[in-house]
Amino acid sequence: MSIYEIVGGNPIEGSLNIQGSKNSVLPILAASILSDEKSTIKNYPHILDVENMIDILTALGCKIKKDDESIEIDPSNIKEYEINSLLASKLRSSIFLLGPMLSKIKIAKIAYPGGCDIGLRPIDIHIQGLMDLNIDVVEESGSIICSSKNAKAGDVTLDISSVGATENIMMASVFLKGETVIRNAAKEPEIVDLQNFLNKMGAKISGAGSGIIRIEGVDKLKGVEYEPIPDRIVLGTYMIATAMTRGRLEVSNYCLEHVQSLVSKLRKSSCQVYVKNGKMQIRCIGRPKSIDKIETMFYPGFPTDLQAQILSLQCISKGYSVIVENIFESRYKYVSELSKMGANITVKDRVAFVKGVEKLHQANLSATDLRGGAALVLAALVAEGKTTIKNIFHIDRGYEDMAKTLSSLGINIYRIENE
């Protein structure tokens, strides 16, 4: 029941090293069970979702050793095939274990996964992809039971280029004799990262980052040491925070290509973004200008996971903005909280109309989900007075100690631990 207390008005000033990617490390942790040998994941993000994934792996029989620098996974004694409903309810990414468990022990039972309530995220795309590999799937009493005893390589065409379904099918097919092809595959950088991890283990996968991925089955995989890519959503969040507070930020451990859709928007908003001496520099002087229209799209389009944060920026920008959410239909739940601060936002279906105001004011807020919670923090950075935000466990799911990070950048933010 912790809360944030934030006193707005200070600009972000300083340097930041970006954490490892949440959306990479979770499927990579799941994929680590495909070998009988130990694997080590370095520069992992210290976030709640990773802790929940470790709990699930431990419950399956993995031995985990963890310190501040790395996680070691020993999957040699996995015997359990069921992920219970309590663990699954804490982590939507528990669904990533279907593919590797079916490859590893030929059977898996998992309760429907939890996660943020941002709209329908049906797993039927995962299920249909697995069935295309001749995997038997039974749904009963809120659980999915799968058997891969008769599985075989095949041609899978996804109805929607789902990241999770693409990754699950990649992991489910690594040991299938012959070639499996995934068409309309998701193109996100995290897909490429998973391919690189699996190939380092000895898999034969090609095409990640394009619409067609090919997997040639192998007999076994080995344990490896691996470092995931930096988190592009965390990077984008702090870039937007810098723009909102009219600050200056220097970033290391980043990939500029992964945030190009955001960079183009920030440059239209009167921000300077450039690379100097190998480090990214973000600088914003004066009130930002509104961006006429922003539409979320699959990568390389503007990411849905930055929609809430950039809407927060539009709230204090000069002019009008229209934001269209094309991925999830219920991702504006945080808007009512921003309105408490004096933001001028009208939402109709998947479209938000924002008229920028010169100032926001303090309020008592509640985070509704991971990225919406981050957007509230960003708004509080520029609000007059002291803002409190509760339910920050949502934020902990994806950001390493946001209060500590922002404090290091000159922001007056305090985490209050309540009993």
Structure description:
By secondary structure, the protein is of the alpha/beta class. It is built from 14 helices and 26 strands. It has helices at residues 22-31, 48-60, 85-90, 98-104, 124-131, 163-172, 189-201, 232-245, 260-268, 307-315, 335-339, 370-381, 393-396, 402-408; strands spanning 3-7, 13-17, 39-42, 63-66, 70-74, 82-83, 107-111, 136-140, 143-147, 155-157, 179-183, 204-206, 212-216, 225-226, 248-252, 271-276, 279-284, 293-295, 320-324, 344-348, 351-355, 360-361, 364-366, 383-384, 386-390, 412-416. The protein has a 4-stranded mixed beta sheet with strand order 23-25-1-26. Strands 2-15-17-16 form a 4-stranded mixed beta sheet. A hairpin with a 2-residue loop joins strand 8 and strand 9 (143-147). Helix 6 packs parallel to helix 7 and helix 8 (232-245) runs parallel beside helix 10 (307-315). It is globular, with a radius of gyration of 21 Å. The N and C termini lie close together (7 Å). The model is unreliable at 115-121 (pLDDT under 50).
Question: Could you give a short description of this structure?
Answer:
The chain has helices at 22-31, 48-60, 85-90, 98-104, 124-131, 163-172, 189-201, 232-245, 260-268, 307-315, 335-339, 370-381, 393-396, 402-408; strands at 3-7, 13-17, 39-42, 63-66, 70-74, 82-83, 107-111, 136-140, 143-147, 155-157, 179-183, 204-206, 212-216, 225-226, 248-252, 271-276, 279-284, 293-295, 320-324, 344-348, 351-355, 360-361, 364-366, 383-384, 386-390, 412-416. With 419 residues, it is α/β, with parallel strands linked by helices.
